Amino acid sequence: MRSQSYGAVAYKQTNYLTADPVKLIIMCYEKAIERLKSAKEYYQNGQYEAKAKAIQKAQDIISELNMALNFEKGGEIARNLDMLYKYMSKQIVGADINRDLSSLDEIIWMLEELNSAWKEISANGQRPLQSSTPILNATLNGESRQQNSTYLRTWSV
Questions:
Q1: CA 147 to chain centre
Q2: pTM for this prediction
Q3: Which residue segments constitute the domains of the chain, with CATH numbers given?
Q4: 73 sits in which H/E element
């Protein structure tokens, strides 16, 4: 059983390390959404320690997405996402302190909308850097990608 668990973790790690930047962004959104939904469930079940861990992981993911923004190439879109990510982080903290699950629903909705947009970019074979319009450029450079990929591996463990 332990070797199966190790194999699953190794598969996920490889998936994160070999993902193209757009897929990596999508994985980040999906994992943040999953963690916030789990936090709500944990709160409703009185599992406060698990709720706190889920919220912290969602916060970490949003922080990593924000740090990955390229303001030079992403222009106004990157600046808007920066403000949006900061807003999300503030709302998550407020929701946790005030025990306001509806605020978490708002953040989940926002992340789902962003995720949907990135999936559309991916499905159309577009790359943010190849666009003629200033599409968000949250792509990661080689060094940051390795750093973030290492960090991403811990989310599934």
A1: 15
A2: 0.71
A3: 2-156 (1.20.120.340)
A4: helix 71-98
